[in-house]
Every structure is written in structure tokens, then in C-alpha cells.
Amino acid sequence: MAIDRPTAEQLQALAQRLHMHLTPEQASEYLTLMQGSFEAYDLIDELPDYTPVAPASPRPSHRPASSDNPLNAWYYRCEVSGAVDGKLAGRSVALKDNIALAGVPMMNGATPLEGFVPGFDATVVTRLLEAGATVLGKATCEHYCLSGGSHTSDPAPVHNPHRHGYAAGGSSSGSAALVAAGQVDMAVGGDQGGSIRIPSAFCGTYGMKPTHGLVPYTGIMAIEATLDHAGPITANVRDNALMLEVLAGADGLDPRQAAPQVDHYTQYLDRGAKGLRIGVLREGFELANLDPRVADKVNAAIERLASLGAQVAPVSVAEHRLAGALWHPIGCEGLTSQLMHGNGAGFNWKGLYDVALLDKQVGWRTQANRLSPSLKLCMFVGQYGLERYHGRYYAKAQNIARLARAAYDQALQHYDVLVMPTVPILAQPHPPKDCSISEYVARALEMIGNTSAQDITGHPAMSIPCGLVDGLPVGLMLVARHHAEGLLYQAAAAFEASADWRTL
Questions:
Q1: pTM for the complete prediction?
Q2: What value does the mean pLDDT of the chain take?
């Protein structure tokens, strides 16, 4: 079929939006010249899309009743079985609901996407199924993944398994809650500002944000390509390392990947902490909202690692704070361009595009008033930066990000792992439905002070549970060199073997 052609009047109006003026005669002449391009569009319109083949068999799914979903952690339930054998045979998995599972609805926590059903599987899904895992459904995630709290999802707030009415963290809220509650063995999360590690800290799970580009993001709805990470959330270290072995590696379709270095992560699990060089990051303990009880638990965990033979010493990386600041122009302008104006895809990259998802995401414009306050805030900052300063601060921040990475790299020449609190606070109560915008946003962003930096620098970072305060979990964050996830697993496994974190 032929695509719509503009009239001369429409072309004149279009030219005005491009800051040009066309006379009626000029518009008519340009329209004639444009026909060759439009014929190319017609050809593309007639061709079938070139995407992965959908599964041959249907995948029945259903929205669970509230009585079967007390944590509001499930968006949709299903049972998609993988290969009969493999590294993950017999393991059950939940997928964050920004990950495409063909034939099963995907909402990304946001009403504008309600009703969208992916036509093909994300790469991580294909790899999980080939490794023998069974996908039990889609885990609730926060509104367009723009919250470290768990009160922003349009389906319903996700409850912390340790205390109903409290935050499970975000934006991979349902993923961590389901693992912590024992409803699945493992889950896949996404991380652009801490969204794997924050819910892991609040819920008491093991959450790995791998090196940027190690796990392909193909088939996962983007926020900002230079910040997008995907990784495993599990109930123990071994499952996490095993899952990363399945997920890691290039797929040839994700521009975030540049020759990722894959390792045998499970081989690090029995090496112990003896001889590990651990740097205690001073800046990680200087957050204004650091709860001293959280600091005490984290310091006790560090002392335990020292007692296991690790060499522990303080270290300062001043650029840790800088990297957190860089997140604002990169994250806000980037997501405004790619997620919103670019309809979840954006431009200028080669790889696999989900055209149907792009078409669905266009609809946010008719429901913009219903976007979450945390997303609106980021969009206001991003749009202002784009309009007033034409993206110069995004560009400058990307340049300066190399300095922040270099500062981490320099410290990591002397230490195998840097440690700090994952989040500065304990899980907080959900804000009331009639709360102010300020309270809503505070509950969404108050916990990202340590986690956003590694999304800017791309370093692998892992949250591990290290104790309880008033019955709520505390997370210890480990950071390593690019593609040194094995060292994180080595330290995490040594700590895990030394004690049950629930008794600490």
C-alpha cells in the first residue's frame, strides 16, 4: 500500500516547524521532487519486517487475581518451558516487564503501553529457554522504569516481602520481590540508575548490574542506550553467577555491545576472600541521608570480609559524586530523546528495532498527563536542556564521564573490589495515594546516591544482603573493573558462605 502524501499546505506547515518558509509554488515543486523518496517508503511498507520468528505454539497467560498476587509483584503469569536440559534446567524465572516475551503482554509499568503484546523474544529470553529455564511470567516494574521506589507502577504498588506496605525498591521491583518471596528461583532485571541493585538491597536478594554491554539489551525497552543494563537477580550467589554465564555475550544486534569479555563466573565461587584487595569507598559513606544503622551493618560486613582474609583499606574516589551528578543531563536528556520523543527506540543505531512497540509508545502523547511525577520531572529537566542548551550538557557530560570512569579504573588498579552501602536507607513506607508531588518524587529517587554512578561509568556492581535492621534487609555493594564480574562473585560467595545474612 502507498503511504500518505502531504499536501502543499501540509508541506508549508512542516517547513515552518523546520524554521523555513516555502511559497506555494516552491512547496509544489518540492512535492514533485519528494515522490521518489515516497516510492521507497511504499516499497518498505509492502515488505515484511525482518525480526526473529515468533514461537510456533501459543503461550497462554493471564493476569493474576489480587488474592493470588499479594505483593502485586506479578503483572502476567504464564509457563513457558525451555530445553529439557542445560545450565538452568529446573529453574524458574520471572522477567521484568520491560522484556519482550512473545505472545505475553508487556506494559512496562505504564498505562500508555497497556495492551501491547510482543511478537518476538528478547535475546535474554531466548538464552534462558535454551539453557532449560522455565519462565513463569512478567514481574511488575515501575512506571517506565523511572523509580527506585515501588509505588509508581500503574498496575499497583509492589510490597516488600519483609513488610507489607513498604517499598520493594525499583525499578525491578517485582523481580526482586518474587525472588525474595521464593515464588521464582531467579529473575532478570534492568538497571539505569540502580534498578537491579536497589530492589535487591531492599528485598534481600543478590543483584548484579554487569559491565555495560555484557548482557545484550535486544528486545528490552530502552531508556537511554548508554545507561541501559540488564542482569540477574537471585536468592544466592551461585545462581547469580550461573545465570550470568547464560545471559552474557554478544548477540550481534545490540549496539551497546563492543566485544564483551565473557568469563566462567562460577569458577570464582570457591576461591575465598583471602588475598582479595578491598577498598572501602569513603564517598559511599558520605551521603547526606545515610542511615547510621545501615552504615553499621555495612561496616560489620566489611570487617567480616577482613576476618576472612581480605586486605581492607579506605580509598577515596572523588569522581564518585561527579558520576552521580553526570546522571542528570545524560539520564534526563537521553531518556527524553530516546524513550519519549524517540518512542522507545530513537535513531542512529544499528540493531533489532521493535516497530510494533514503537507504534504503541507513540500513544504516550495522548496520555501525557497520566505519566508518573518522577518521569515528568526527568522529562522537564531533559526537555529544558534540549531546548535551551541544544543538548550541549548531555554532550559535555558524556565527555566528562570518561574522567569518572578513569578515576574508578585508577582506584581499581590497587583494589580488586570497592565496597559501600548499596542504598543509604532502609525500605520506606509507600507514600499515600494523595501525597504531594514532592513526597512522591522523594520516595522514587531518594536512594540512588551510590548506585547511579556505575551506570554512568559502566563498571559492574553487585548488591548482596549483609544483615537486617528492624527486620528489613541491608545491602552491601561491590564494584569491580570492567568485565571483572568474577571478582565480585568471589567476594560475594566468601561472605555468603561465612554466615546467614538474616542472622547478622
A1: 0.97
A2: 98
Query: Any catalytic annotation for residue 171?
Result: yes
pLDDT digits (tens, 9 = 90+) for 282-293: 999 999 999 999
d(CA 490, CA 484): 10
Q: Are residues 278 and 319 in the same domain?
A: yes
**Residues linked to residue 139 through DSSP beta bridges, in sequence order:** 74, 96
Q: How far apart are CA 420 and CA 198, in angstroms?
A: 13
Instruction: Provide the percentage of residues in the chain whose pLDDT is more than 90.
Output: 99
CATH of the domain at 395: 3.90.1300.10
Q: Which of the following is catalytic: 172, 195, 374, 452?
A: 195
Range of the domain at 315: 61-503
For residue 495, give the amino acid letter: F
What was the pLDDT predicted at 56?
A: 87
Q: Are residues 37 and 183 in the same domain?
A: no
Which of the following is catalytic: 92, 96, 150, 297? 96
The number of folded domains in the chain is: 2
- Give residue 144's region: left, alpha or beta (phi > 0; psi -120 to 50): left
Looking at residues 9-13, what average pLDDT do you find?
98
Contacts for 253 with CB less than 8 Å, ≥ 6 apart: 123, 216, 218, 351, 352
Average pLDDT rounded to a whole number, residues 242-252: 98
Known active-site residue 200: no
475 and 450 in one domain? yes
Q: Given 150, 171, 173, 200, which residue is catalytic?
A: 171
The SS3 of residue 58 is coil
SS3 301: helix
pLDDT computed for residue 1 by the predictor: 73
Q: Whole-angstrom Cα distance, residue 493 to residue 384?
A: 45
Q: What is the CA radius of gyration of the chain?
A: 23
Does 169 map to a domain? yes
Residue 208: what pLDDT? 99
* Residue 337 and residue 471 in one domain: yes
Give the count of beta carbons closer than 10 Å to the beta carbon of residue 442.
17
Residue 195 annotated to the active site: yes
Predicted confidence band at 183 (pLDDT cuts at 50, 70, 90)?
very high
Q: 3-class secondary structure for 473-496? A: EEEEEEECCCCCHHHHHHHHHHHH
